């Protein structure tokens, strides 16, 4: 398992510098410096569902270079970002140093979060899109989330739908489910020198390992961790071109199926709360 983690960390170290470029490629970070009110497309998509988060003690798990993290801060949350890539965190700290956003970043893999962050101290645990597929055990993830939340605190998760992760994006003539829907011990191994956004160079750490988790497995893991599910919304779009040649771009950076529009969900938003302590 440590070999899988090391390979994935090397890949995310590599992606971080490409994603944080100021050239207009990658994550387009220059817009956050030019416009202090700019929010990431991912956070803006769920802004109504997030509600008023002003003053909430918030942790953004698997925060990468911090664009969603600083967006939460711009909505008034008191935010800590956590990630396992030291390069990504260096880029995130550089970004908020330039933008002036008040965000703290902490280095840790997800499963060790409770050893570097104070347990039961967060009003909001936030996880953005494209995070869970890097984790081998969804039950361990749910236990970490529950451990971080204060009584009455809330999980907010938007993710790519596990149905989407079963599809082979390399075949553009139709939808082709080829990969496991349910969690398996052994990961899928990938080798690619490209990223999911345009970059000014190919990746050099190209091998990655990923795991899928069925929607039922995710919900069950949260329930077994003691959380109460309060919302589950499936969406017909994702914030990147997940299936090249089969999608159309919408306003706000979302992509939906073209010829097969509406035949399957592409992402989802889950909210769950930790029961308040008994009086």
What's the order of the H and E elements?
HHHHEHEHEHEHEHEEHEEEEE
Q: Order of strands side by side in the largest beta sheet? A: 3-2-1-4-5-12-8
Instruction: Bin the strand percentage.
Output: 15-25%
CATH topology name, in short, is Rossmann fold
What is the architecture at the second tier of CATH? 3-Layer(aba) Sandwich
CATH superfamily: Vaccinia Virus protein VP39
Mean pLDDT: 96
The tally of strands reads: 12
* Overall body shape: globular
- Total number of distinct structural domains: 1
Provide the CATH top-level class: Alpha Beta
Sheet with most strands = 7 strands, mixed
Describe the structure using short key phrases.
279 residues, alpha/beta, Rossmann fold, seven-stranded mixed beta sheet, three-stranded antiparallel beta sheet, 10 helices, 30% helix, 23% strand, transferase, Methyltransf_12, methyltransferase, methyltransferase activity, SAM-dependent_MTases_sf
Describe this structure in words.
- The chain has 279 residues and is α/β, with parallel strands linked by helices.
- It has one domain: Vaccinia Virus protein VP39 (Rossmann fold), CATH 3.40.50.
- It has 10 helices and 12 strands.
- The strands form 3 sheets. It has a 7-stranded mixed β-sheet with strand order 3-2-1-4-5-12-8, sandwiched between helices. The protein has a 3-stranded antiparallel β-sheet with strand order 9-11-10, with no helix packed on it. A two-stranded antiparallel sheet has the order 6-7.
- Strand 2, helix 6 and strand 3 (103-107) form a beta-alpha-beta unit.
- The longest helix has 18 residues, at 2-19.
- The N and C termini lie far apart (42 Å).
